[in-house]
Amino acid sequence: MDSIKIGLIGLGTIGTGVAKTLLENTALLDERLGFSLDLAAIADIDITTDRGVSIPRDLLTTDAYALINNPDIDIVVELIGGIEPARTFILDALKAGKHVVTANKALLASRGKELFDAAQTYGKDLYYEASVGGGVPIIKALRESLVANNFIFIYGILNGTCNFILTEMSEKGSSFEDTLRQAQELGYAEANPSTDVDGIDSSHKLAIITSLAYGVPPDLSGVYVEGIADLDNLDVGYARELGYKVKLLALAIDRGERVEARVHPTLVPMNYLLSKVDGVFNAFYVRGDIVDSTLFYGRGAGMMPTASAVVSDIADIGRNILAGIAGRIPHLGYRKGVSKPKSYMPIDDIVTNYYLRINVMDKPGVLANIAGILGERDISIVSVIQKAVHMDGYVPIVMLTHEAKESNIRSAMEKIESMDYVGGKPVVIRVEDKNLKKSS
């Protein structure tokens, strides 16, 4: 039986899952593939800690270049994360004639063009299914299964930590701070959770998804990001009253020559499938012009789901090696020099619906004044709820708007905040509800 030799750099959580899969599911993989995936070497700075997997000692080294420069190794798997030295390891592995598998979303989102160009220059494959969605095969779906489609939009719940926090806030009325503490105790959130709760993790994934769908180079500067750290459980509760759940949504939307790419808290109707994706799960709602609507759902992180995606890439590259081919599928879904990339749409230019909460003094004429300010900026109101609850002498007015331009909303909120009858900064949350759209 033919053998594909694999060098693994990084024996952390995901690396351990990959080693476990390759060592313990050997017979299954051999039967399905018709060739063996031989884990030939593992490099990590710590090769003494027990990972709970029986790994032969002679596979372990602290020297990554012992793998990269080993002529017998066919595929290098990078699972150390971060920008450096991961970037250098991948570039040097490609230069040394190795194919590469990575799960490094931050690196691909920020330096992906450089890496994919290098893979093409050296005639090698660079696969990255595990970088987005953990065990959910969204990369393969966009590059291969849905290749016939223009993507009208892709909506994603891309971060399990944030989704867990928002689920708890919605179902139990807990504060963000209390729920974050619970997520940390359960191991869903890091001690420093900023990458998750500030939306950074989701923005990395969305940059990759947007590239695949629309042919734009991965560019974090083109992705608008808001996190959930400032979200008040008061607004989560009002959203429920209005028939919505709040989700940290990642959106990629085709706008002709431009594409929207944004991550932010979003009101999603409770009857939408995405609103029913709770806890630590991820989901991708993809609308294509040919296939119509599809939903991909599953565990977006964790040792074994992510290892499943890594091993699928290893198997695909193994098939390519034995067929004597590389670059069969464009790394970002489009042949270089053939596609006509779209540009990113600035956040000020987007048009959508909005949830507004404005705390005001309870006196006559206030609502009329606010409506006047909104009307001057072409913002019309779908519904208004004035709550009787007093907050430091103010009462909250909750509104849903018809579609409006972001720049007009920002201008209106700046003006409203300056009025002497308004207490504090107005709350603005975007809404994705087809029943509120002009085309409905």
CATH architecture identity of the largest domain: 2-Layer Sandwich
Low-pLDDT runs of 5+ residues are none
Rounded radius of gyration (Å) = 24 Å
Helix content: 25-40%
Intertermini distance: 59 Å
CATH level 4 superfamily of the largest domain: Dihydrodipicolinate Reductase, domain 2
Spell out the key features of this protein.
Dihydrodipicolinate Reductase, domain 2, single chain, Alpha-Beta Plaits, 18 strands, 3 domains, Rossmann fold, six-stranded parallel sheet, 35% helix
Task: Set down the secondary structure blueprint.
Layout: E1 3-9, H1 13-24, H2 26-33, E2 36-43, E3 60-61, H3 65-68, E4 75-78, H4 86-95, E5 99-102, H5 105-122, E6 126-127, H6 138-145, E7 151-157, H7 160-172, H8 176-185, H9 194-197, H10 200-214, E8 224-225, H11 233-241, E9 244-255, E10 258-269, E11 281-288, E12 292-299, H12 303-323, E13 343-344, E14 351-360, H13 366-376, E15 381-386, E16 395-401, E17 404-405, H14 406-417, E18 427-431
Parallel strand pairs: 1-2, 1-4, 2-3, 4-5, 5-6, 8-10, 10-13, 10-18
Antiparallel strand pairs: 7-9, 7-11, 9-10, 11-12, 14-16, 14-17, 14-18, 15-16
Short description:
This protein has helices at 13-24, 26-33, 65-68, 86-95, 105-122, 138-145, 160-172, 176-185, 194-197, 200-214, 233-241, 303-323, 366-376, 406-417, and strands spanning 3-9, 36-43, 60-61, 75-78, 99-102, 126-127, 151-157, 224-225, 244-255, 258-269, 281-288, 292-299, 343-344, 351-360, 381-386, 395-401, 404-405, 427-431.
